[in-house]
Input
Amino acid sequence: QVQLVESGGGLEQTGGSLRLSCAASGIIFTIYTMGWYRQAPGKQRELVAYITSGGTTNYADSVKGRFTISRDNAKNTVYLQMNSLKPEDTGVYYCNVKMGLYWNNGWGQGTQVTVSS
Output
């Protein structure tokens, strides 16, 4: 059973930085693509960034150049370094694992990020 535990969120001012962490268990972490999603108030959950097992990364246009996703396979953990934060980055951030063609149906509790203007 996949378990994903996110942490590292908080309240930051515009222009600030936060580093999110997601500890995964119940999977062979090294072989899967991992991703970060976020859900802003009143909006659908969106994919922000992902990193493949080989280390290839991809970002949503809205965060490109500001966010960096990375993984530590020894710790079964994926990170999201968020710099130059904007109020529109506010939301609950979730990590997820892509098994084959699809992202896992289950979600962790997420971690709240709030960016004040």
In short: Residues 5 and 23 are 5 Å apart (CA to CA). The mean pLDDT is 96.
